[in-house]
Design goal:
Layout: E1 2-7, E2 25-30, E3 33-39, H1 49-59, E4 64-67, H2 72-80, E5 84-87, H3 93-99
Parallel strand pairs: 1-4, 4-5
Antiparallel strand pairs: 1-2, 2-3
Helix pairs in contact: 1-2
């Protein structure tokens, strides 16, 4: 299973980003090993970040996305792609990895 974690920085000690669509980075893990770091191209700009992020992560074959909050449009996009999500607050990427 591939997991994408929204992160403020590009490392395991980073705090999970409170906003999924505008997260600066996504860290992608497979079997709890970091396999890829993506600088989110949708972190700044106009609307529609959620749809863009979901498509980007779907292209990486991600199954689960972890972030702080997910907007309604992003949840709709997740459901359309049959992807699951988990909301967490005030945790590091490393802490999240021990829980999933």
């Amino acid at each position: 299973m591939k997991i994408a974690i929204a992160a403020e920085k590009d490392n395991l000690n980073s705090i999970v980003c409170p906003t999924a669509g505008r997260s600066p980075f996504y860290l992608i893990f497979e079997n709890k090993s970091l396999i890829k770091t993506i600088k989110n191209p949708f972190a700044v700009g106009g609307g529609g970040a959620g749809f863009g992020v979901i498509q980007m992560l779907a292209n990486e074959d991600v199954n689960l996305i972890v972030s702080g909050k997910f907007g309604a449009n992003m949840i709709t996009a997740l459901e359309q792609k049959n992807m699951t999500y988990k909301s967490v607050e005030n945790k590091t990427v490393e802490e999240v990895l021990t829980e999933v």
